[in-house]
Fold:
Amino acid sequence: MWTRKTTQRLLLLAQITAALVALAGCDHRRNDCTPGTIQVDIETSPTSADPRFGTDAMSSRVNELIFDSLVRNDRNGQFVGRLAQSIEHPSPTTTVYHLNHGVRFSDGRELTARDVLFTYNSILAPESMSPKRASLEELKSIEAPDDYTVVITVAHPYAPAVEIATEGIVPLGTPLPAQGSSAAPVGSGPFKMVAYSRDEAIRLERNPYYPHPPGGVESIFFKIVPDPTVRALELAEGVCDFSGNNIQNDVLPWLAAHQSIEISKTPGTTYRYLSFNFRNPRLRDLRVRRAIAYAIDRNAIVSSVLLGDGRIATGMLSPESWAYQGNVTSYSYDPEKARQLLDQAGYPAGKDGMRGLRFEFKTSAEGARIGEIFQAMLQRMGIELTIRTLEFATYYADIQAGNFDITSLQWVGINDPNQYYRVFDSKKTPAHGENRGYYSNPEMDRLVEAGKTNLDPEARKKIYAQVQQLAAEDLPYVSLWWVDNVAVMNRRLVGFEAYPNGSLRSLATLKLAAPHGGGGEPVASIQ
Structure:
């Protein structure tokens, strides 16, 4: 008897076989065979190798290996000093960071408070047009009274003030990136960038002035591989050493059958959501948004597409957050309720079952598959969803500018519930913030603005409980799932530690065992 599982296996076999045939004439040898080099396959290029400009997840992943910041969040989501050896809070609006002595950029220059001051001033300078400028809006002043002291002052009490200190630091005088430039500035992190060919590869080598473990990774070759099947094949053949959160879930059992491969799965805080553009009058209708929420079978997607590697989300904050409130309005799969809401909104089904509701779903190549699932689910309700797939940089630019009807993205590394202010406050629309859907609700504005200025943790927790409930009721986003972190790696990598936000930071502390050979196992070993 044919079952869904059998069909999935056959489709996977066909995918891999086709890819093997297509790649049969290619040279699958490692791009660099030096013992201390590892290859990491990533799906897209970073949008910027300059920490003052990169806001996408891939930029963050690569840049945190090159640049250090005053503070950084640890595996428990708590902020700890990096460049700062100690932190003082002499007043509710002032934070003093005392820098470590002897920190050096990869070109040998010592990092001082003057470099920190320059970095922040260059983000704030209007001519830089940095997208990170909006995240520093609370910054009143930054001063360097001496070479090892940085004083950051905010205009009024600001609960997440320490987040201001998370920007990657570049040396004094570092120019703004030229148009089309992909080279990274000098950093003080564990690696330095030595080569970058956009949409092809990035090469990092050890910062000679940064301590690293004996027997550790000496260089990282990031290869941009958009095709998930090719990424899986390169892992199986031993060409690639590591891929994080970018292997299709239905391929994982096949990869797990290879003795040279290890798979790590841990709960993650990355939040997947569906976003609406409120400039579209039809999407401003709450009944339409709720109908869409009821039309999406999230359990089926997590079960059959993610193969269980995710948790149904109630909002942006995962259960690991101190401010998490999960007892909010939820939208279990209910097609009948969805149809009733659409009828009430004035969109009755026609003879063909369609309701005259048409929306464009913008996505990148990586999101096309999930877009097709949304398309099929909404079509059952009589909603037509047209999928428009764009190259990632173009897609991301459109989303940042608010040029979409519906899209689905992920928020990575949410450290503080103040994220709600950044994405839902009516003043934070494009050019001023990340409210890309132009959502506006006076009650949401009141709550998120109160949450960012209240310094009492218990009071903030109560405020954000209300915020999470209002977001669930008003649906600026449809919460989908929190993505589990799935790292697939060659067993010669020893000591990988997962971060809830999917950070690749532990690549800097890995040790290398004797290399394992390529997979060599037959495709028929799929279980």
About this structure: The chain has three domains: 4-43+189-260+491-525, 67-166, 268-483.
